[in-house]
Amino acid sequence: MPRRLQLLSRRPAVSAPAPGDVVPLCDLAPASRASVAAVSSGTSQATARRLTDLGFTPGTLIEVVRRAPLRDPMIYRLRDYEVCLRRAQAGCVLVRVVD
User: Fold this and answer.
1) What pLDDT digit, counting tens, does each position of 3-22 carry?
2) Can you say whether the dihedral through the CA atoms of 42, 75, 55, 61 is positive or negative?
3) Is pTM beyond 0.85 here?
4) Would you say 66 and 74 are in contact if contact means Cβ atoms under 8 Å apart?
5) CATH number, domain at 74?
6) Domain assignment of residue 75, given as a range
7) What is the full per-residue pLDDT of the chain (99 aa) written as tens digits?
8) For site-directed labelling of 88, which of 9, 23, 25, 95 has its Cα 20 to 30 A away?
9) Would 17 be classed as within a structural domain?
10) d(CA 91, CA 8)
11) How many CB atoms lie within 10 A of CB 67?
12) Phi-psi sector, 10: left (phi>0), alpha (psi -120 to 50), beta
């Protein structure tokens, strides 16, 4: 087996979240849509405030536009603009998957 296929075959199987599931924003695949459920209480107050200022407020619709080749950072579209977040920052936002 060529080396590239060996590397790809080692990736763990990840199931896509079902509509209605609450998951961290960083777990969504490109072209997925979700609405913000909450900003995680486990994050620092400064990070939570910054995410809120960027528009990550409950009920806001978010679309995952694309991600970098190594999965970090990712680009999200919300409120008619695009924002780029690292996985650690996106993991602080809990979203509810929509159809």
Assistant:
1) 555 544 455 545 667 777 88
2) negative
3) no
4) yes
5) 2.30.30.90
6) 31-99
7) 555 555 444 555 456 677 778 899 999 999 999 999 999 877 889 989 999 999 999 999 999 999 988 888 999 999 999 999 999 999 999 999 997
8) 9
9) no
10) 24
11) 19
12) alpha
